[in-house]
hAT-like transposase RNase-H fold domain-containing protein (Solanum stoloniferum), 353 residues
Amino acid sequence: MHKRIIIFCPISNHKGEDMTNEIMKCLRDWGLDKIFTITVDNASSNDVTVKELSKIFTKRGINFMNGEHIHVRCMAHILNLVVQDGLKVSVVSIERVRKAVKYIRLSPARCKRFQECCEDVDINCKKSLCLDVSTRWNSTYLMLNRAIEFENVFSSYAARDIGLLHYLQFVEDEDGKDEHGSAVGALLSDDWDNVRKNANFLQIFYDLTREVSGSHYVTANSHFLKICEVSCYLKQLISSEEDNDDLLGKIASNMREKFDKYWGTPKKMNKMIFISCVLDPRHKFVSVGFALQIMFGKEGPILENGVRDYMDLLFGEYVKSLSKDKGSQHSSSLSSSSFENSSSLLSSSGSSV
């Protein structure tokens, strides 16, 4: 996998049309006329940008398959939006931990006192408390995960420093993070239970985000199966009656609503995530068909056939492209013959392909 930064520049505004002009200028400067996909996050201006670029590519005759697959939504960003919606449900417990961590980190003297409390409860840990960035859910997971290690230390510290209780109950955050103002209240045992549940829940999404955000290896081949994992996990939490956990059920319901906005149906997904999975020799059509059936039930086999048809069309487009490049009647007929043979093999071999 290769990654090259070909431009890094300021823009006058974030309007889709203006961003389109900047991108096209860059492509012209570099003489690039083969654009397969464009990956962006889910800002509405980016949607406009991709549509405008697709129109320009179509006019120039370089829009592969009329740009059906050109728009790729960033999977890591969608996961961030999904998790952020879930965290809104349990914001009180998370906010109490956040404020407690912030209070201690505000002063070197408090940090030293906190370290002394660690020694008192026989915790010999070189790690320190970390404060999250509220707009990045993965940093919230790291903050909660670290705070859990010091749960007993917080209780010991609260007994030594009455200022912590006062800060939690009456001091409002200057940066406006605290939605509950002076009513946040002290850390209770129920809060720690909620924090542990949230941390365990978020670890799955944290690990998943790290996997799909790799920059030194290809990740597209695993995207669809990871989406299927998330779907199954949320479905299990929503429908499970074993634990009867209202908190996780509400979190999962909120997340499912956002999940369905982007991945609720195959039409909302870029078809390339299916194709890249099929081309992975560890998965092929067997895994894709199985995942489709898990996510969409009886419609699974029909959707799998749709993936096969699209892959045939995609292969046909490459045949046409190669035939034009070679400019030879012989190569054109040979490629067409290969396409027909490959298509018949795909049709006859079924899900064992």
Notes: The longest strand covers residues 38-40. Residues 300-326 form the longest helix (27 residues).
